[in-house]
Amino acid sequence: MAPATFGIDLGTTHSCIAYVDEAARPVIAKSAVGEDTTPSVVYFEQPGVALVGTAAKNSALLAPHLVAQLVKRDMGRKNTEFTYHGRRYTPEKISALILRELARAAEENTGHTVRDVVITVPAYFGIAERDATRKAGEIAGLNVLDVLDEPVAAALHHHALDSSPQTRHVLVYDLGGGTFDTTVIRVSGDDIQVVCTDGDGELGGANWDERIVDHLLAAFREAHPNLDPSADEQAMQAFAERAEEVKKALSATMSRNVALRVGGAAVTVPFTRQQFEDLTADLLDRTLAITGRAIETARRKGVEHFDEVLLAGGMTRMPAVAARLKQRFGLDARLSEPDLAVAKGAALFALIRQAKNVRGDARQLGITAVDAMAKKRVATVVPRAFGVKALDPRDPLALTDPLRARQMVAHLLQANTELPADTGPYPFQTAIDNQRMAEIEVWEQAGPTASEELADNTKVGHGMLTGIPARPAGCRIEITFYMSETGALTVHAKELEGGNDVRFDLAIGGMDHKAVAKARTDIAGHQVSG
Ligand code: AMP
Question: Which of 247, 279, 311 is at the close of a domain?
Fold first, then answer.
């Protein structure tokens, strides 16, 4: 058997793993229970015993204190840990357990060893979140060839990135179970680049489900005014399941009856697609507002027209999505396996990454597309701006009373700069007379758009420049940022009076090799099943 490479969509609510078969087609490797996707839920059944997926999801309401879910939202967050059975777990470790189960089930169902993988991340993920995702893979014992933007993976799946001499622009609208994002990609020959991305990390299918649950609850109470199912956890679990089922059903049919039973009391609630769309119209409107913002950002960057509009995420199966994109923006969206597209695209990308190694095998296997794909280059960009904390030079207090002057973040490295990047020296000055040292604080943009306000940025590290000669304020300091292709940041600060300098590397992900090795040993001792 050829050594397969796998693509993994490590999602907020669902994950999915795929590989490329002998006929060069990406294929989903099924979960332990024979499904295409696996809920990204971990149930710590006993110390050192983890259930992952559907079984874990079903335990969520019965033993919520032993269940981890939506952990993707915490990826890359420092000092975040969860405790189960007295053991501490970082988001990376919990993700590693999900990855181990995906790999285990895929090995069982395909016969291929799962070792070399590409894992996808949202385009808005910063360096820390990307690094945490890579580390999660390493903790799971996988060889992470690369982390890839989800919209780029979706576009690969749709062949929207196939080589053509003309520059094309692709808009990806991705509405999943827990998050929404929309991304514009530029394809020029073999170069693929993210132009801009926008989204809401707290908007997804679960919000639609909640609306249906509220509606069902109201209908139940109307029929049985003396009963309150909301106090009954098992009843609420059943309502949540019915809500998701009817939501999915209404993507294919115009109406559905929902049968509810709490204790001995039962009611059947008729529910139509129109009712559903009316109940949730404002949620869809929020995604459209964000899409409008992304289109506007892309326009400012010279994108006038979209050659392709692609839908990703299971929620885009709702007919209202494509209909509203057409109505509001005149966009004709393509829908094809939206919940599997990202994993399949990642599998194709894993093959690209391995192309050099597998070319021999590929010829043998008749994969003619591999050579063409191997030429493709996905430009990695800095997803968010990086800068240093400085006094605002426009504030008159900066000269007269620097301690009270406005502090801001001066961005040296702008979002969407291609990597590797070298900013060249940026000029700064000492603020105080006889200032002998300067703390270089490095900050990363936290929100969707770059802003100078400290509150809109997160501190990611610092270094100390010492040995500045005693001089009046205004000693010149030059700061340069270098960022490698994988996002490792090196900061160089030099004072020009005495010639002293400091250079420091920021491991923005926070976990060093030793910590990864330790986490890997911890997780290796766990028994994981689906
Ligand atoms: P994802 O995270 O991309 O797998 O998206 C999962 C979300 O899509 C969940 O909220 C599902 O309930 C939802 N979903 C899956 N299939 C459908 C469908 N046919 N119609 C509407 N929503 C769906």
Answer: 279
